[in-house]
Design brief:
7-stranded mixed β-sheet, 994 residues, alpha+beta, 25% strand
C-alpha cells in the first residue's frame, strides 16, 4: 500500500511559490486569484509501517520551522479549487529519486525494482473560478508530454480527495527483435527513413517507431551492405546506423562536398586552426582539438582547461524544462569524458527565444487547432528553470550567459549550454588528454539506468519539428546522480582504474560503445546486462536510449573489481556489459542471441558523402529614416528593449559563487546589477591565473550579410575577453552553427559565407577554434488557426564562444565607472553602420511591429582591431585602466549607460570628439554598432602612459566621469543628451522584472 505525505507552508509563512503562481495567473491568463498555496506531495510506492511513515514525514520531508504536513490524509485549508500536477509514468522524477535515497538512509529500507517515490505539486487556489479556468491553470503549469493533471473543486476534494494514481510503469519484459526488409519499392524505403520502422498495424493504420532521418542515398547504401551480407538488418542494426549517421552525430551538412569546397568543417574550421597552430609554434595553446568531447587548451604548466558548448534546441521546444536540464547535465559530461576526465569548473548558457509578451494566436502542430506550440514565455521559464536545476544542484557555478529575442525563434528556440573543466597535464605518467580502449578491456556502464526517455533523440534533432516529432525524444537529467558519478570518476581517474571513457549522449550506448570500439578495433556487448528503469524495453530501445547521467568506461580485467568497489562505495551503479575486442566488428547479443553484427568501418565510415550546391543572392532593404526624437528618450527606449534590457531576473536564479572562483561576476557595479561583457573565474584557487568566458552572436546581421554576421561575432567575442583582462594571444574559440532548411541552396549559400568568415577572422586574430557543434534543421512546420501551412525558421545563427587566459586575475577590469574626474576614452572609430542594429529594430517595431533592417551592416576589420586589443591588454597589464566596456549591440550610448548605471556616477562627454568616420548625426553616433570599439575610463595621473600606448591608434578623450548621476552629451557646444541615472536604470530593469 502506497504512503502519501503532503507538505505545506504554515499559514503564517510566506509561500513564495504560491505567490509566483498567483502573479503568473494574472499576467499570463488574466485570472485573479485571492491566494495560492503550493503543496509538495510525496507518494511512496512501498509498504512502510505507521512508525516508519511518521518518522519519514517528520524527519525527512517536513521543515518544523516553516512547514506542516499530513500522512495518508488530504491536507486541507480554505480554498476553492485544487490543481495537482505530477509526472507521467516513466518520466524521470529527480525529487522522487532523491527522496528514495533519503528514505533508505533514514529508515534503512531497500527499494526493490518497481518500488519508487513519486512527487507532484498541488495548488490550492482561492477565487471565483469555474472548472474551465482551472483547467487553463493546470495546462499553464504542466506539459502534456511529461505531466498528468487533476482538477477538483473544494467540495469534491473534501469528499474524495484528488484521485491521482501512482504513476508506476507496469510492462512485461519485451525481448522483441525484428528483421527489416529493405528490398522494397523506393516509396516504402523513403517512409522507412522519414517515419521509422513499422511497429504494428492498429485499425488499419501504420504505427511507426519514429524518424531514422536517413535519406535515399544512405538507405540504398545500407540495403546494399546487407544484401552483400546475405541477410536482412535487425531493427537494432538499423537504429544503430541511423543514430551514428545522423546529422546530429556525423554533421553531414558540414562534412558534405559543397560546391568546390571539400567539407566546410575541414576546410574552414579545422584548417584555420591548423594554420594558427603552425604560426604559433612553441606558443601554441592547443592541446587536443576536434578529436574528443571538448577542446583542450593550456592553462598552466601543470594544468589544462577544456571547454564545450552544445545546443539542445529540439527537446527544449517540446519540453523546455526537460530539454534544458538534459542539455546542461549533458554538456557537463563532455568535459567529464574528455581525455581521462576533468573536474567541472563552471557552466554557461545562451537562450534565443520568441517574444515572451507574444499576444497573438500561436501556430499549431496539427490541423484543426490541435496541439499548439508552447508560448515563448512558457519556453523561457521552463528553459531557465532547467538550466538552474542542472547547474545549481550539481554544485557547478553558472558564471556566463546571455538572452536574445527574435520572433523567428518561436517555432524552435535555441538553447546553448556549455561547461569548462580543468585537468592535470599528466596523470600517472601519461598525458591526461590521451586515452585508448584496449582489446580485452571490459565495457562498464555507470550512472543512471536506461529508460524509454531519449529514444530517437539524435535523429529527432536532425530534422524539422513537426506533428510527428516523438515525445520519447524528451529526457530529464538528474544532476544529483551525475554529481555522484562525476566525483567517483575523478577518484577512479587518479587511481588509474580505467583506460578510456566517453559519455552516453546522442545515440546512447549505440554511439558511446561503438566510438570507443574504434580505439580497440571492436566490441562485444551483452545488452541484457544493461540496468533498466523498468521492464518492457525492447533491445533496440535499450541500445539507442539517451537516458541521462551515464558514462561508458574501458577497464582492464585486473582493475575491474577495484573500479566496481569504488563506485559501489560512492553509491554509483556500475555494470559490466561486455568486452572491447580487435575483431573489426561491433557485436551485440540479447539473452545470448545475436542481434547486431556490423563492420566497425561501415558503421563509422560507410555514410555516403553528400554533394551539395549553394547560391547566394545579397538582399537589399529600405533604409529607415531616423526620427527627430529626444535622444534621452531614445536611449531609455533602447535600454528597455528585449535584447538590451537587464536579464538580472535570470542571472539571479543561477549560483555563480559556488566553488569560490568567481572574479568578474556576470553582474557588476556598485549594486552588482549591470551585465558584464565577460566573466572571469579561477579554476584553481592556488593559482593567480584565471579563465575568461564570453560569447557573441548577431543573427540579425545575417539578414544583410552572413559573412559579417560571423566576422562581427568573432571580433566581439574576442573584444569582450580583452576588456576584462584576457591575453589576446591566449584566446580560443568555439563555434555553434544553428541553421535552418539546410537542404535549401540559399541557406547553404549563407552557411558557406559564414564559414568563410570563421576561417578568415580566426586566423586574423590568431584565435583557434578548438571545439564546436552544429544544428542544421531548426525549423517548425505546422498550421495557423485556419489550417494554412506555417513554416517558421530560425534566423541562421552562429554563436561564437570565447575562452581566454587571464594571466593575473587581480588586474581584471569591470565596466563600472570608478572615480569622479576619470577621463572617458573611446578607442576605435564609429561609422554609419546601423544595418540590422537594435535601434533599427526598435524603429520598425514602432511603425508596423516588424524590425527594420537597413543595409549598412557593421564591417569587422581585424587588421585595425587586433592592434587595439593588444595595446588595451598591455594597458590593463600595466594597471592603467579604471573601467572598460566592449561596444557592441546598442552602440556607444548603451555602453556609456551601463558604465554610469554600474558605477552610480555620471559622464559628461562631447559628441564632436568621438572618433568617427563619415558620421555626424547624433542618433547614429549613439547607436551605430561599429566593431572594434572599447569604452574606457582612465585616471589623470595614468593618462599620459595610456596615450603613449595608443599613439598610432584611433582613440579620443571624449569627456570625464562626474559625481552627478547622469549621462550628458553636448554637440557644437549645446547639450543634446541628458539622461538621469534613475531614468536609465528604471528603463533597463523593468522589462523582464516579472
Amino acid at each position: 500500500m502506497a504512503v502519501r505525505i503532503e507538505v505545506a507552508h504554515k499559514p503564517n509563512v510566506l509561500d513564495a511559490a504560491g505567490e509566483a503562481v498567483k502573479r503568473s495567473m494574472k499576467a499570463d491568463l488574466d485570472l485573479k486569484a485571492l491566494s495560492v498555496r503550493v503543496l509538495d506531495i510525496y507518494t511512496i510506492d512501498k509498504e512502510l509501517t505507521t512508525e516508519q511513515s511518521e518518522k519519514a514525514r517528520v524527519q525527512l520531508f517536513t521543515d518544523p520551522v516553516s512547514q506542516e504536513s499530513v500522512c495518508n490524509e488530504h491536507y486541507s485549508s480554505e480554498f476553492d479549487w485544487a490543481v495537482e500536477v505530477g509526472f507521467l509514468p516513466g518520466v524521470t522524477d529527480n525529487a522522487g529519486r532523491t527522496s528514495r535515497d533519503g528514505l533508505h538512509d533514514l529508515l534503512g529500507v531497500d527499494f526493490k525494482n518497481g518500488e519508487a517515490v513519486f512527487t507532484s505539486h498541488r495548488y490550492l487556489i482561492s477565487g471565483s473560478f469555474v472548472k474551465e479556468d482551472m483547467l487553463k491553470v493546470a495546462e499553464h503549469l504542466s506539459n502534456p508530454l511529461i505531466n498528468r493533471i487533476a482538477v477538483v473543486s473544494k467540495s469534491d476534494y473534501d469528499a474524495n480527495g484528488m484521485g491521482m494514481d501512482t504513476p508506476r510503469v507496469d510492462m512485461a519484459p519485451n525481448p522483441r527483435v525484428d528483421e527489416v526488409d529493405m528490398n522494397v519499392p523506393d516509396e516504402e524505403l523513403l517512409k522507412l527513413g522519414s517515419q521509422g520502422i513499422l511497429d504494428k498495424l492498429e485499425d488499419g493504420k501504420e504505427l511507426r517507431r519514429g524518424p531514422l532521418a536517413l535519406d535515399m542515398k544512405s538507405l540504398n547504401v545500407i540495403r546494399d551492405y546487407f544484401n552483400k551480407e546475405g541477410r536482412k538488418p535487425t531493427d537494432v542494426e538499423l537504429e544503430a546506423l541511423a543514430q551514428t549517421w545522423s546529422e546530429h552525430c556525423k554533421h553531414t551538412i558540414f562534412a558534405a562536398q559543397l560546391d568546390e569546397i571539400d567539407s566546410l568543417y575541414k576546410s574552414m574550421i579545422r584548417d584555420a586552426t591548423k594554420e594558427i597552430r603552425r604560426r604559433m609554434g612553441k606558443d601554441d595553446i592547443c592541446v587536443s582539438v576536434f578529436s574528443d568531447n571538448s577542446g583542450v587548451i593550456t592553462f598552466t604548466d601543470n594544468q589544462n582547461v577544456c571547454y564545450k558548448v552544445e545546443t539542445h534546441n529540439s527537446p527544449s521546444a517540446l519540453d523546455p524544462y526537460g530539454g534544458a536540464i538534459t542539455g546542461i547535465v549533458g554538456v557537463n559530461r563532455d568535459p567529464l569524458g574528455t581525455g581521462l576526465g576533468s573536474k567541472l569548473v563552471t557552466n554557461m548558457y545562451g537562450f534565443c527565444f520568441g517574444n515572451p509578451y507574444w499576444n497573438k494566436e500561436l501556430p499549431y502542430r496539427q490541423k484543426g487547432k490541435v496541439n499548439p506550440i508552447l508560448h515563448p514565455k512558457v519556453i523561457f521559464e521552463g528553459v531557465r528553470e532547467g538550466v538552474e536545476d542542472g547547474g545549481n544542484k550539481s554544485g557547478i557555478p553558472t558564471s556566463w550567459g546571455f538572452l536574445t529575442f527574435d520572433d523567428r525563434y518561436m517555432g524552435k528556440p535555441l538553447v546553448f549550454v556549455g561547461t569548462l573543466g580543468i585537468m592535470p597535464t599528466m596523470l600517472n605518467g601519461k598525458p591526461s588528454h590521451e586515452k585508448t580502449a584496449l582489446p580485452g578491456d571490459y565495457i562498464i556502464m555507470a550512472g543512471g539506468r536506461v529508460g524509454a526517455d531519449g529514444i530517437h533523440g539524435a535523429t529527432f534533432s536532425s530534422e524539422s519539428l513537426h506533428s510527428g516529432s516523438p515525445a520519447g525524444a524528451v529526457q530529464i537529467g538528474d544532476p544529483i546522480t551525475q554529481k555522484k558519478l562525476g566525483d567517483a570518476q575523478l577518484e577512479a581517474r587518479d587511481l588509474n582504474l580505467f583506460n578510456s571513457i566517453t559519455d552516453n549522449g546522442a545515440g546512447g550506448l549505440s554511439c558511446s560503445v561503438c566510438e570507443m570500439a574504434e580505439e580497440s578495433g571492436g566490441c562485444e556487448v551483452e545488452l541484457d546486462k544493461v540496468p533498466i528503469k523498468y521492464a518492457g524495453l525492447a533491445p533496440n530501445e535499450i541500445w539507442i536510449s539517451e537516458s541521462q547521467e551515464r558514462m561508458t568506461y574501458s577497464v582492464a580485467p585486473e582493475k575491474v573489481d577495484a573500479l566496481l568497489d569504488l563506485f559501489r562505495r560512492r553509491d554509483v551503479e556500475a555494470t559490466i556489459i561486455g568486452r572491447f575486442t580487435d575483431s573489426g566488428r561491433a557485436k551485440v547479443t540479447f539473452n545470448g542471441q545475436p542481434i547486431m553484427d556490423l563492420e566497425l568501418d561501415f558503421l563509422h565510415n560507410g555514410l555516403p558523402e553528400k554533394q551539395l550546391t549553394s547560391v547566394y543572392t545579397k538582399p537589399t532593404y529600405p533604409e529607415p529614416e531616423l526620427p527627430d526624437n529626444n535622444p534621452a528618450d531614445e536611449l531609455k527606449a533602447m535600454l528597455a528593449s528585449l535584447n538590451l534590457c537587464s536579464k538580472e531576473y535570470v542571472v539571479r536564479q543561477y549560483d555563480h559563487e559556488v566553488q569560490g572562483g568567481s572574479i568578474v561576476k556576470p553582474l557588476v557595479g556598485e549594486d552588482l546589477n549591470v551585465h558584464s561583457d565577460a566573466t572571469v573565474v579561477r579554476p584553481d584557487l592556488h593559482e593567480i591565473k584565471g579563465v575568461a568566458l564570453s560569447s557573441a552572436l548577431f543573427p540579425s546581421y545575417g539578414d544583410i550579410d552572413p559573412y559579417q554576421m560571423a566576422a562581427c561575432a568573432i571580433d566581439t567575442a574576442i573584444r569582450n575577453q580583452v576588456v576584462v583582462g584576457a591575453n589576446p594571444d591566449r584566446i580560443a574559440l568555439l563555434d555553434n552553427f544553428c541553421w535552418c532548411s539546410s537542404n535549401d541552396e540559399e541557406r547553404l549559400g549563407q552557411l558557406k559565407l559564414t564559414a568563410q568568415a570563421c576561417y578568415d577572422f580566426s586566423i586574423a586574430h590568431m584565435a583557434p577554434f578548438v571545439s564546436g557543434k552544429d544544428s542544421m534543421f531548426n525549423d517548425f512546420k505546422g498550421f495557423d488557426g485556419n489550417d494554412n501551412p506555417v513554416h517558421i525558421s530560425v534566423p541562421p545563427t552562429l554563436l561564437v564562444s570565447s575562452v581566454g587566459i587571464v594571466e593575473d586575475v587581480s588586474k581584471s577590469v569591470t565596466l563600472d565607472a570608478k572615480v569622479k574626474g576619470d577621463k572617458v576614452i573611446v578607442i576605435g572609430e564609429t561609422s554609419d553602420e546601423m544595418g540590422a542594429s537594435e535601434y533599427y529594430r526598435l524603429l520598425g517595431e514602432r511603425v508596423d511591429g516588424k524590425p527594420a533592417i537597413g543595409n549598412n551592416v557593421p564591417i569587422a576589420d581585424a587588421e585595425k582591431s587586433r592592434p587595439i586589443y593588444k595595446a588595451f591588454a598591455k594597458a590593463i597589464e600595466n594597471g592603467l585602466v579604471a573601467s572598460a566596456g566592449s561596444v557592441h549591440q546598442g552602440g556607444l550610448a548603451t555602453a556609456m549607460a551601463k558604465c554610469v548605471m554600474a558605477g552610480k556616477l555620471g559622464i559628461n562627454f562631447d559628441f564632436d570628439k568621438i572618433p568617427a568616420n563619415g558620421v555626424d548625426e547624433t542618433l547614429k553616433l549613439m547607436f551605430s554598432e561599429s566593431q572594434g570599439r572599447i569604452l574606457a575610463t582612465v585616471c589623470d595621473k595614468k593618462l599620459a602612459e595610456f596615450e603613449t600606448l595608443f599613439a598610432n591608434l584611433p582613440y579620443a578623450i571624449i569627456g570625464e566621469v562626474t559625481e552627478t548621476p547622469a549621462l550628458v552629451g553636448t554637440k557644437a557646444g549645446s547639450e543634446v543628451l541628458k539622461a538621469d541615472l534613475e531614468g536609465l536604470a528604471s528603463s533597463y530593469k523593468n522589462t523582464l522584472d516579472w
